[in-house]
Automatic annotation (TrEMBL):
Membrane topology, record value: Peripheral membrane protein
Protein name: Spermidine/putrescine ABC transporter ATP-binding protein
Organism from which the protein derives: Winogradskya consettensis
Coiled coil location: none
Main location as per UniProt: membrane
One Pfam family recorded for the sequence: ABC_tran
Record-level GO cellular component terms: plasma membrane
Subcellular location(s) of the protein: Cell membrane
Molecular function (Gene Ontology), one example: ATP hydrolysis activity
Alphabetical list of InterPro entries matching this protein: AAA+_ATPase, ABC_transporter-like_ATP-bd, ABC_transporter-like_CS, ABC_transporter_ATP-binding, P-loop_NTPase
SUPFAM superfamilies the record matches: P-loop containing nucleoside triphosphate hydrolases
SMART domains referenced in this protein's UniProt entry, alphabetically: AAA
GO biological process: response to antibiotic
Residue ranges constituting the ABC transporter domain according to the UniProt record: 6-231
């Protein structure tokens, strides 16, 4: 079995004079979830279109399930599940008709009624697609992507427009795909979605890869941004602030807060400073930067 479901190497996508994707490389190991993050215009959807075989790259290469998405398109498509932002289904057909139609294309489809129940669509089975709400359309589009038992699923903003309950149901379903050995490449604007679901995260900015790693690796590399220390009140903290080049405050009697870009060495410096001051430290708490902090720092200069 191939190690990676998706292999993208130095892919370039251009629209006239505009370069939407500029030398991007990434891989999706079998049975894992990769989340592709980035602002609008970062190049996420263009990269997905290359992987799905809907357009060829202007440079570089892509292999999906060991095949060329363009040259081997007909062989590849039955093995893929694709959920598009726009839905890609017939607006005049009912939800049940749409799902049964796509199930008929598959050699071994999932049970349609089970999918309707799982995604909370049973009561909308006889409702025309155009009459569904945005969140209901998203859930149906997800069902369409999954009904053929794909080996690899592409999800473009899968929970856009969903309420909290539907989003949680979708997360559980996507997580169950990984447990069944299905590979997933998804784009999302929801940082908590990526942090909750993804084994690996790629952050794109203006068509290039700004950072890559597991959610834990990305947040650990960003370091600590808040250190709270409980000790004797009234210490002369100005010298500590100068030593660390960080903001140091006493928010309450003996409740000290050190805010800034800190690492384990900084933590050691803080504790050593309190020891030299003859202060007994009774509690230490840290707050690591979240994936959202990392994302905002990397994309702060992106063109909106």
């Amino acid at each position: 079995m191939l190690e990676n479901a998706v292999e993208v190497r130095d892919v370039v996508v251009k629209y006239g004079e505009v370069t939407a994707v500029d030398g991007v490389s990434l891989s999706v190991p079998r049975g894992s979830i990769l989340a592709l993050l980035g602002n609008n215009g970062a190049g996420k959807t263009s990269l997905l279109q290359v992987c799905e075989g809907f357009r060829g790259p202007d440079g570089g290469s892509a292999r999906v399930l060991g095949l060329d998405p363009i040259a081997d398109h007909d062989d590849l498509m039955p093995r893929l599940g694709i959920m598009l932002q726009s839905g890609g289904v017939y607006p005049w057909a009912t939800a049940g008709e749409i799902l049964r139609l796509f199930a008929s294309y598959a050699a071994d489809p999932l049970d349609v009624d089970m999918l309707l129940d799982r995604l909370g669509l049973r009561k909308f089975a006889k409702t025309r697609f155009r009459r569904l709400s945005g969140g209901e359309q998203q859930r149906l589009s997800l069902a369409v992507a999954l009904v053929g038992r794909p080996e690899l699923v592409f999800l473009d903003e899968p929970t856009a427009g969903m309420d909290v309950g539907a989003r949680q149901t979708t997360w559980e379903l996507v997580d169950s795909l990984r447990a069944d050995g299905v590979s997933v490449l998804l784009t999302t604007h929801l940082l908590d979605e990526a942090e909750s679901l993804a084994d690996h995260v790629v952050i794109m900015d203006n068509g290039t890869v700004a950072a890559t790693g597991t959610p834990a690796e990305l947040t650990a590399a960003a370091g600590i941004d808040l250190l709270q220390v409980r000790a004797e009140p009234g210490l002369a903290i100005a010298t500590l602030a100068e030593q660390l080049d960080a903001k140091v405050t006493e928010d309450g009697p003996g409740e000290y807060a050190i805010a800034g870009t800190l690492d384990t060495e900084s933590l050691a410096e803080v504790l050593a400073w309190f020891a030299r001051a003859g202060a007994q430290v009774t509690a230490v708490n840290t707050r690591r930067r979240t994936l959202e902090d990392v994302y905002l720092a990397l994309t702060a200069g992106a063109t909106r």
